Amino acid sequence: MILYLASSSFCFFLKDLMLSMAFVYFIASKISSNFFFRTDGSLIGHKLSSWWQKITESKMALDTPRYWGM
C-alpha cells in the first residue's frame, strides 16, 4: 500500500514537471520569436522569424521543418 502511494505520487510529480517544462518552453519560444527576431522592414529578419516560428510551432520539438526560409 505504501509503495503504491509512493509510486502514484511520483507519477503526479513527473506529470507536473512535464507540464511545467512544456509551459516554460512555450513561453520562451513566444518571447524569443516576438522580441529577438523582430526587425522592422528587414527581409532577413522576416525569414529568421518565420523559420523560428516553424521550429516552435511544429507538432514535436524535434521535428525538422521542410523549408528553412534562408
Describe it:
The chain is an all-alpha fold and 70 residues long. Helices cover 70% and strands 0% of the residues. It has one domain. The protein contains 2 helices and no strands. Helix 1 (2-36) runs antiparallel to helix 2 (43-56). The mean pLDDT is 65.
List the helices and strands and how they pair.
Elements: H1 2-36, H2 43-56
Helix pairs in contact: 1-2
Keywords for this entry:
membrane; transmembrane helix; 70% helix; transmembrane; single chain; mainly alpha; 2 helices; elongated; 70 residues
Helix and strand succession?
HH
Bin the strand percentage: under 5%
Number of helices: 2
Number of strands: 0
User: How many domains, as an integer?
Assistant: 1
In short:
By secondary structure, the chain is mainly α. The protein has two helices and no strands.
